[in-house]
From TrEMBL:
GO terms for biological process: N-acetylglucosamine metabolic process. This is Glucosamine-6-phosphate deaminase. One of its GO terms (molecular function) is glucosamine-6-phosphate deaminase activity. InterPro entries: GlcN6P_deaminase-like, Glucosamine6P_isomerase_CS, NagB/RpiA_transferase-like. PANTHER family: GLUCOSAMINE-6-PHOSPHATE DEAMINASE-LIKE PROTEIN BT_0258-RELATED, GLUCOSAMINE-6-PHOSPHATE ISOMERASE. It comes from the Bacteria.
Amino acid sequence: MYQYFNIPAADLERNAKIPILKLGDSGEVFYELALEMVHTIQQNNRDGKNTVFICPVGPVGQYPIFVRLVNRENISLKNVWFINMDEYLDEHKQWIEQEHKLSFRGFMNRAVYSQINPELIMPKEQRIFPDPNCLSHIPQMIEKLGGVDICFGGIGINGHVAFNEPQDISADEFAQLPTRTLQISRETRTINAVGDLNGAIAAMPTHCVTIGMKEILSAKKIRLGVFRDWHRAVIRQAAFGEVTAQFPVSLLQRHSNALIITNQNAAQQPY
């Protein structure tokens, strides 16, 4: 039933329904993502166009490289919009505090925005997060800006992209789900607790706000970076399995310009 798990690393790029770019170590994956960010901004700046990215907090290894290149090459971000994918919510279904260890807003401020030359950084109103109190803001902003140039992201252990958790609905229905709040699955909370809270599942938030698959699939390009051991199975199911809302990333098989960028580790066979 799951014969794609047996695809060897040497054949991973062959006949994939989502194209796969296989690189060396994780640093190469992050550098590839950062370069695409920088080159897109530079080209749009030359053409007098805005740049609109959907950005993750996971993976994050591209951001130090991006910051260094922006500062070194004196690249203006004044016409750049970063639309972050998601954020954890507290027990009142509001953003967790920026000072919280898990806050994506806090991470972006600490690791990205505060590290860029103030003369180059985009205005604060162009650093956007989905807001549980105004779910229509991001779809309206994307329409106003003329669409998203690139959606960057990763893939969750259950195939989620952003926090679009699996659902028992058709793939077509799932593809139309917009920005919304939702309950985080046990699988996601568990794997995130391992990486972020040393296994403290009970301390993980139970709810989040996320952009929808509708916004993700509307992007002109989609670039997903993977590098962990458990990504070995995930990328095979994403690129060779059936299209289903039970494994959300599989919907990218229908996108005209999606790409999974993997390191050598994640390219290995699961078993």
